[in-house]
């Protein structure tokens, strides 16, 4: 039962599911599904019920519903500390998309501080479960050797991973096809006339970094272009990238970077050499961070479909919570190349 209200012309009194159902012209079970399992309803029906809920200002009593369903309607999301000097636009955008899609499904995201140590983080998950605070978890920043998916799978805890590198054999995941993105960047540069295209990536060993490097390598081979001595590596730091990419400045007419941070380092290295990004050497980044469109020249970059990732994570996790023994679901989404000034000019002799 909800709180007393006078919304929609009523003169006080409790707002019940029956009253909402009458306003929406549906059954009380349909209203219950809208609150607890919205994915079961057709979009038009769900919209009509939600409008009735808003008009009557219906607010279900969360504690009572939790006791009835043995569900907290909370999803745990661990926030790891960010190294000094690094921004996290991808993580921030993903978290917003995840929170919005979870809200539409009737859930809330419970943020908790996630320590960097795998054992400590597992203890934190166990603590939340023992307190019955969450119905499942969303993992991000996954990596090869990540122990979180295995621990959650072993303990039959519903989870979804953003990133396929740690959960290939132990659960559901949603990921972005980084190889597709860097290959699209190479195709775009080749179409513009470039033949010496370098890759500025992260050190070998990370799933995400190797995936993006692999897309560049395969696309270069598909176009029968040389790759020897055209791949350089750096940690995700502007000054480190500036130093690393200097080794190919003067030999390459274009650079594909594994992140926008690395691309900014490339901008600085080119200017150190008296060259102009976009005019003398084309540059393409990855992630399409907010700064990409503000740089001069504006940076071409590969945009991850993070809104779609958030919706897919929520949908799959909801299904896992309801059907714990169903087959794992894996979704690989294609990113989009956003072309701007940094890659629009033809290569200079």
From TrEMBL:
What organism does this protein naturally occur in? Streptomyces niveus
- The highest taxon in the source lineage is Bacteria
- Designated name of the protein: Transcriptional regulator
Arranged from A to Z, the UniProt key words for this protein are: DNA-binding, Transcription, Transcription regulation
Q: Which GO terms describe its molecular function?
A: DNA-binding transcription factor activity; transcription cis-regulatory region binding
Q: Where is the HTH lacI-type domain?
A: 15-69
Q: Matching InterPro entries, A to Z?
A: HTH_LacI, LacI/GalR-like_sensor, Lambda_DNA-bd_dom_sf, Peripla_BP_I
